[in-house]
Amino acid sequence: MLKPIPFQPVPMIAPQTASVLVETSALTRRFEVDGQTIQALHEMTLQVRPGERIALLGASGSGKSTLLHLLGGLDTPSSGQVDWPALGRAETLRPGKVSFVFQAQSLMPPLTALENVALPLMLAGQDTPDALKVAREWLERLELAALADQLPEELSGGQAQRVAVARALVTRPRLILADEPTGQLDSVTAQHLMDVLLSALDDDAALVMATHDAAVAGRLDAVWHMQGGRLSMITSRKGERT
Ligand SMILES: Nc1ncnc2c1ncn2[C@@H]1O[C@H](COP(=O)(O)OP(=O)(O)OP(=O)(O)O)[C@@H](O)[C@H]1O
C-alpha cells in the first residue's frame, strides 16, 4: 500500500548532488494565450535520483506534461532552473541519456518496428548494421521479434507502445520520461506494458511517468500528486525521501 506522507519541498542544495539525474529549482512555466497568462508550473523544486520510479498523478491540466518536457530539456523554463548534474547540459542530453515514451502514435510511420527501435542508436552515431542488431535484441527481449518487419499502422495499440518502450530503452538511458504511455490502452494491456517497462529498466535508471491511472501509479515506488502546477503531496512505498 502506498503510504501518504506530508509534502515538503526538497532542499535546493542536496548532499549528493553529483548523483542527481535531474533537479529543478523554483521551476516556473507560463504560457501566453490570446493575451492571457496561463501559469502551468509554479516554482517547483525537486530532484530525481538514480533508481527512482516516480508517478506523476494529477487531473488534466495540472502540469504533468509541461513538467516532463522541462525535465527532458524539450522546453525552457519561464523562470527558475532545471539541471542534470549527472548527465550534462540540455544541449548534450540526447540522444541516449534521456528517453521519452509518449501516449500514442509516436513511432515513425514509414519505418518498420525494427527500424524505429534502431533509430535512436543511429542518431547517437552507431552504424546501421550494429544499430539494427542491437534493436533486434531489444525486440526479442520484449517478446516483439515477430513484429520486427511490421509498420506502425500494422500494430495494435499495445504492440506499438511496447515497440515505443523498446525504442526508449535501446540506448540504455539514465532517465526515462513517460507521458501517459498507457493512456490509450485497456487495463490488462496497460498492466502488461508496465510489466515490460519495469522489468527492462536498468536498476540505476530513473523513471518519471505521468498517468491518470491510479493502478498504473501504484506500480511505482513514489507518487507525486500534482495540482494546479504544484506538487501537492508525495506518497511513497519506502517512506519519506531525504
Ligand atoms: N503549448 C502550450 N500553450 C499554451 N498553454 C499550454 C501549453 N502547454 C500546456 N499549456 C497549459 O498549461 C497547463 C498544463 O498543461 P499540461 O499539458 O502540462 O497538463 P497535464 O497535466 O499534462 O494535462 P493532461 O493530463 O490533460 O495531459 C494547462 O492549462 C494547459 O492548457
From TrEMBL:
Residues 22-242 form the ABC transporter domain. InterPro entries: AAA+_ATPase, ABC_transporter-like_ATP-bd, ABC_transporter-like_CS, ABC_transpr_LolD-like, MacB-like_ATP-bd, P-loop_NTPase. The keyword Lipoprotein applies. It holds the Pfam family ABC_tran. The keyword Ligase does not apply. One of its GO terms (molecular function) is ATP binding. Keywords: ATP-binding, Lipoprotein, Nucleotide-binding, Transport. This is Lipoprotein-releasing system ATP-binding protein LolD. It comes from Deinococcus xinjiangensis.
